Amino acid sequence: MSDKNTLYLECRSGISGDMTVAALLDLGATEANLRQTLAKLPVDGYEIKVQRVRKNGLDVCDFDVILDGEEEHPHGHEHAHGEKHSHDHIHGDHEHTGHEHGGHAHAHRTWKDIEEILMAADLKPRVLELSRQMFRAVAEAEGKAHGCPPEEVHFHEVGAVDSIVDIVGTAACLEELGVEKVLVSDLWEGTGHVRCQHGVLPVPVPAVLEIVSAHGLTLRQTEQQGEMVTPTGAAIASLSEGQHPSRFRVKKVGLGAGKKEFPKANILRAMLIQEETEGDLWMLESNIDDCTGEEMGYAMECLLEAGARDVFFTPIYMKKNRPAYRLSVLCDEEHIREMDEILFRETTTIGVRRYRVERDILERRFAEVETELGMAKVKICALPDGEEVFYPEYESVKELANKSGKSYREVYRVVKEKAENSRA
User: 281-357: which CATH number, 3.30.1330.10, 2.60.120.200, 3.30.70.1380, 3.50.50.60?
Assistant: First the structure.
């Protein structure tokens, strides 16, 4: 499919790799393309199954990875230790210990091994890029959780096979659907504990927390017992360029089944959407000469957290030559009342004026580029004539500058040149 699409993932039942692949297949990605892509991987010992199942009365798509030596389980099969079966759980380990599955000992794969598998598979460029980005998110998170460099993280072979299939499968479906931008809602997570290679860990598991922290995702913990967000699911969510869009039209909906049975339907809802153009917005302004800097700084934080598009201060002079600030808030029409309430509550203003404004914006997307200094995130904007311009993200540049000891300006130049050359 050649059309550019925005994908919105609604994660009210959490997110995992198998749920994502199922939802994308239901959305229109084809099983044939999925199988053709997976067949390129130098990985065996598994088969996949796609079927329709019912969740709380809904007809949804189910995707399953069945490992050799593992009996096919009924949907929602209970393991002996009381946890629902899930193929989607990577547990990094930098110790060279054996892992038993189906009566056979399995080796471990490092992130380097997995990257070599991806590079050797002759995947489409977009599929390769997305797959590496998601696996790198997991490797970095597991490395941080276990106190070792990402390159030294060892994935148990069983988990690695499942996750390679889920991640590459997700990437293949995204590419086929023409998805250029991913938006992800809050990640609804359960509570309690989960059993894994390292013993019993609290939910959310450490790798999920590390991915959420590193990529600015938002968790919403529920009272539901058990894990709802897996590391692979969190890695898929790390592709997100934002949360719930303010206004959009739904073009198509796909439902992916989870393997657990919750009181509420255990499904991932994926939507191909058309974001409405951000034309008319509202500017709220107030001149303030009797409010402290701390109060105005706090008000700014509150306004941005409540959904303001932008907040800024302009130095001005008021009556009797008093130094003052004009507080300006750019927001959508539906947020005007909330912005007013914050301004009156958190500042000393007694009046707010407003007027409608228009603006032109460039199409934008994010990508990661690999430089000699490390990975960096870059914003790519398309000019009206089709030319693309590249803007390295501040946090990425800052992190590389701190690690390398080079100046911010030098790191910015390196990242920008690498991004431009990679798209040449």
Answer: 3.30.70.1380
